[in-house]
Amino acid sequence: STMKEMGYNTIFFQVRPRGDAYYRSRYEPWAENLTGTLGKDPGWDPLATLLEYAHAAGIDVHAWINVFKIRGPNPVGLSTPQHPSRTLAGWCIAEGGELWLDPGRPEVRTYLASVVMDLVRSYDIDGINFDFIRYPGHRFNDAETYARYGKGKSLHDWRRENITAFVRDVYHQATTAKPHLRIGSS
């Protein structure tokens, strides 16, 4: 039986697993899981295909985005476009064997908003689901960023405000472009 027959009305589809994409992104490379090679065009667009079939069946599609966590422990090769761990290396911090974009840097939040808005403008998605929309833990090594941007706030308040600022800004941009979008997080 089909998902529609089983009563499903929404699919949450991961489109950005680790700074790479299961859709045609202007900013980030094709996911290596598609072809075995980071950045290699698989010859089809998984998100576009899903949207075509899901919408034909009356099922909504929410784009699942891993936000700040962009890489596991393995280094990345060259690709077009380059993986953000290469192009934004100065904005990345390693934590627990993973690579994270530093949420305290305004440039990171601007970059990620551009990634999300490219997706919103290019695809007829019904919603966005943010995952890893947080810091990886209290020991995150962002002392330099905090010294530069903290402006006397406590570390915890400043970090909370960074996440809130990103969500608020992207929510405003995305719902201005497409008022029907539903935005949430895991």
Q: How many strands appear in the DSSP assignment?
A: 7
Give, in order, the helices and strands: EHHEEHEEHEHHE
Describe the strand arrangement of the main beta sheet, using strand numbers: 1-2-6-7
| Helix vs. strand class | alpha/beta
Radius of gyration: 17 Å
Strand content: 15-25%
Helix content: 25-40%
The end-to-end distance, rounded to whole angstroms, is 28 Å
Main sheet properties: 4 strands, parallel
Unreliable sequence segments:
none
What sort of overall outline do the alpha carbons produce when their principal axes are compared? globular
Summarize the structure in words.
It is a single chain. The mean pLDDT is 95. Helix 4 packs parallel to helix 6 (155-177). This protein has 186 residues and is an alpha/beta fold. It has 6 helices and 7 strands, in the order E-H-H-E-E-H-E-E-H-E-H-H-E. It has a 4-stranded parallel β-sheet. A 3-stranded antiparallel β-sheet has the order 3-5-4, with no helix packed on it. It has helices at residues 32-35, 46-56, 84-87, 106-122, 143-149, 155-177; strands at 10-16, 60-66, 69-71, 92-95, 98-101, 127-131, 182-185. The protein is globular, with a radius of gyration of 17 Å. The longest helix has 23 residues, at 155-177.
